[in-house]
Write a structure and sequence with these properties.
It is built from eleven helices and eight strands. By secondary structure, the chain is an alpha/beta fold.
């Protein structure tokens, strides 16, 4: 079923992001994690798509496994980097027989393992909006999600320019937005308000990353433009000094739980948890919240 209609027909919800394990030996453990998280009754789950489409086949097979073993609504990611129309068309054609009605359309980052200039890698789909427009034209009934950056994309020259990019994604046919992770809810609500002033009324789903340990936080922050409030940094550092990873984990759970509670109480349509393919923390964060 199309996610836009699911959002409209649902009370505040949770959705989840998974990434396909690179080693097939890790797939059974991953599917066990997904089965545990089924307890959250996710509205949908998204499955990432490797740089340059490097895990495209894994993405499709994992989607199929999630549908058959967990019975969840699945939305694969689809990136435009290093892709041409034929490659994207083949991917989209494979979704119909699987009963998949939604994709998350992304430009994608330049992968380190692919040669060629940026002009070559992004020749067909230089922007996410180009990919959105292609999907909308070829598959008009497809539900299309896009990424939003409340603190602006790292490559954007300004917040205003980033909002212009979002406007173009919507003009090309995007149905809803999932935001990049962030750690201050004021950033999310300011982002929603700025988009609303530009006439963008599609659902904006906030993305939340529960902090598991300092090492995982450092890794994630290398990949995105999120800023960590000083109060949270101090709490994490103090916890690490006093109790190590276990104490950091507890601070991470408490902070994410409060973040989700405030989001749902203040009108967010739902929350999208970046699971890092872990079940325990997500279950603790959401316990008793909805």
């Amino acid at each position: 079923m199309r996610i836009p209609e699911l959002i409209t027909d649902s009370d505040p919800f949770v959705s989840l992001e998974f990434f396909p394990p690179k080693k097939r030996d890790d797939w059974p453990a991953f599917l066990e994690v997904a089965a545990r998280l089924k307890a959250l009754n996710p509205l949908f789950v998204s499955v990432t798509y490797g740089a340059g489409g490097s895990t495209q086949n894994n993405t499709l097979e994992i989607c199929e496994r999630l549908i058959s073993s967990c019975g969840v609504e699945v939305m694969p990611h689809l990136t435009g980097v290093a892709a041409d129309e034929e490659k994207v068309e083949r991917f989209l054609e494979a979704l119909g027989p699987m009963g998949i009605d939604n994709v998350l359309a992304l430009r994608g980052d330049r992968p380190d393992n692919l040669s060629g200039s940026d002009e070559e890698l992004f020749a067909t789909f230089p922007h996410a909006s180009d990919l959105v427009g292609f999907v909308r034209k070829r598959y008009p009934e497809m539900g299309i999600g896009v990424a939003g950056f409340p603190e602006a994309h790292a490559e954007s020259p300004s917040i205003a320019a980033d909002l212009d990019v979002m406007g173009e994604k919507m003009a090309q046919g995007a149905d809803f937005v999932i935001t990049q992770l962030y750690f201050d809810n004021r950033v999310y609500f300011d982002y929603v308000e700025r988009l609303a002033r530009r006439g963008i009324s599609q659902p904006i789903i906030p993305g939340v990353l529960p902090i598991r340990n300092l090492a995982s936080l450092r890794f994630i922050l290398e990949l995105c433009n999120a800023k960590v409030p000083g109060k949270l940094i101090n709490a994490l550092l103090r916890a690490n000094e006093e109790g190590g990873n276990k104490a950091v984990y507890q601070v991470g759970v408490a902070y994410a739980k409060q973040q989700v509670r405030e989001l749902l109480a203040s009108g967010a349509p739902g929350v999208h948890l970046y699971t890092l393919n872990k079940a325990d923390m997500c279950l603790e964060v959401m316990a008793g919240l909805y």
